[in-house]
From TrEMBL:
It comes from the Bacteria. Signal peptide: none annotated. InterPro entries: 6-hairpin_glycosidase_sf (IPR008928), 6hp_glycosidase-like_sf (IPR012341), AGE/CE (IPR010819). This is Mannose-6-phosphate isomerase. Keywords: Isomerase. Belongs to the N-acylglucosamine 2-epimerase family. SUPFAM superfamilies: Six-hairpin glycosidases. It comes from Komagataeibacter diospyri.
Length: 391
């Protein structure tokens, strides 16, 4: 499979599937799951995060001319604001809605709030509506108030469900700040992004192993003793890409040192792939390098594809990309699913789920965009790190 074939599959099958079968026109909201026949699976709650990811994806697809569902996505965003924002009278966006339209889970979740900002960025780019730009600014201020902590970073949730601080929502918040900066040009988003980049470089990454760790204490120390913490190679690839995006958009003074961090994250992730060719990104490894979850999901493979796409014009051969895409096609997007996918595989390669989650489309289409738009060409250092890691 070539990048063009991957794009064709996404444009002609995946995007139509989720804008048709995957969209509830009665509620103007997206379904969270489809079964393997493409039928919606009705759930007791619809999460804010899933709605926001789908909105952003279809706004982006409309901007690229890949799918004409931009107006549908904008209408969905308006409905999401009406239903989720301050739905219980308090500031912020509720976590999820029940089928009757009332809040199912009232907690405020940093992950979901990051994605609603991301959705606003793409919706504003598509529509040019100054009201969306203002609402994004209000939502950003609201987020910083709700999740505020005395030190760097933010609370994961309010009220908190535990004392753990996690890198993952901060990663997606960085993605939202960068998307908003690119959409609006407002310096406040660049400054917010810079603070998260500093947090990631100084606290998230273990200097000894090069792994970006997942869980931390309230003062951003690794949650477990040295050598016993968990890392997800897919997140290393996401952070590497985000740091390159930060360099592209923000041109910081310390660009060289940030680029070195991005390259090391990329090469470290590849060093922890399964010992086969093409590389396969496993779910999780320990800080000591042992595999703690040998299963795979679709999203880390798309992050690998996106990383390869970033490097395609330099040291990475088209044969490597073709091999990764062929493996991806065989194991995750079989033809009989007609635009759907297998989201999880066990360590032995057997499917681990009996349905398709909508949340993966954001990862899949992101990989398509970065493979085919040529925007990320020219990162030779990252490309060299791949060539050094090939088996």
């Amino acid at each position: 499979m070539t990048p063009d074939h991957f794009q064709t599959w996404a444009v002609r099958q995946a995007l139509p599937l989720w804008s048709e079968n995957g969209f509830d026109r009665d509620r103007t909201l997206f379904h969270e799951r489809l079964d393997f026949s493409g039928r919606p699976i009705i759930l007791p709650a619809l999460r804010l995060m899933v709605q926001a990811r789908q909105i952003a994806t279809y706004c982006r697809a409309a901007l690229r001319g890949d799918h004409p569902a931009g107006e549908m996505a904008l209408h969905c965003l308006a409905e999401v604001k009406r239903r989720y924002h301050r739905a219980d009278g308090a500031a912020g966006w509720v976590f999820s809605l029940s089928p009757d339209g009332r809040p199912a889970d009232r907690r405020r979740d940093l992950y979901g709030h990051a994605f609603i900002l991301y959705a606003h960025a793409w919706a504003y780019r598509l529509s040019g509506d100054p009201g969306l730009r203002r609402r994004a600014g209000d939502a950003a201020t609201e987020l910083e108030t709700i999740f505020h902590t005395p030190g760097p970073g933010f609370m994961d949730a309010v009220p908190p469900h535990d004392a753990i601080r996690r890198q993952n929502p901060h990663m997606h918040l960085l993605e939202a700040w960068l998307a908003l900066f690119e959409a609006t040009g407002e310096d406040i988003y660049r400054d917010r992004a810079a603070r998260l980049v500093t947090l990631a470089i100084t606290r998230f990454i273990d200097p000894a192993s090069g792994l970006l760790l997942e869980d931390f204490t309230a003062n951003w120390q690794p949650l477990h003793p040295a050598g016993q913490n968990r890392a997800e190679p897919g997140h290393l690839l996401e952070w590497s890409w985000l740091l390159h995006e930060y360099l592209r958009l923000c041109a910081p003074r310390d660009a060289d040192s940030i680029r070195q961090v991005a390259v090391r994250l990329h090469s470290t992730a590849l060093a922890h792939t399964a010992p086969i060719h093409p590389p396969v990104i496993r779910n999780a490894v320990g800080q000591d390098g042992r595999v703690v979850d040998g299963g795979t999901r679709i999203w880390p493979q798309t992050e690998l594809i996106r990383s390869l796409g970033m490097n395609h014009s330099t040291a990475v051969s088209s044969g490597v990309i073709a091999g990764v895409l062929a493996h991806f096609t065989t194991h995750y997007i079989p033809p009989h699913l007609n635009g759907g996918w297998i989201d999880r595989l066990n360590a032995d390669g057997t499917p681990a789920m009996d349905h398709m989650p909508a949340s993966s489309l954001y990862h899949i289409y992101g990989a398509v965009c970065d493979l085919t738009d040529g925007r990320n060409a020219g990162h030779k250092d990252a490309a060299d790190s791949l060539s050094h890691s090939e088996p």
